[in-house]
Amino acid sequence: MDRLELIRGLAVDGESKILLVVLDGLGGLPMSPDGPTELEAARTPNLDALAARSICGMSTPIAPGISPGSGPGHLSLFGYDPLRFEIGRGVLEALGIGFDLRPNDIAARGNFCTLDPKTGVITDRRAGRIPTEVGARLCEKLRAVRLPGVEAFVEPVKEYRFVLVLRGEGLEDGLTETDPQRTGVPPLPVEPTRPEASPTADLLNRWLAEARRILADEYPANGCNLRGIAKDPGLPKMPDIYRLRCAAIATYPMYRGVAKLAGMEALPTGDTIEDEVETLKAHWDEYDYFFFHVKKTDSAGEDGDFGRKAGVIEHFDRVLPEILALGPDVVVVTGDHSTPALWKAHSWHELPVLLWSKYVRPDGVTAFGERPCMQGGLGHIRHVDLMGLAMAHAARLTKFGA
Question: Model's pTM, two decimal places?
Answer without folding.
Answer: 0.83
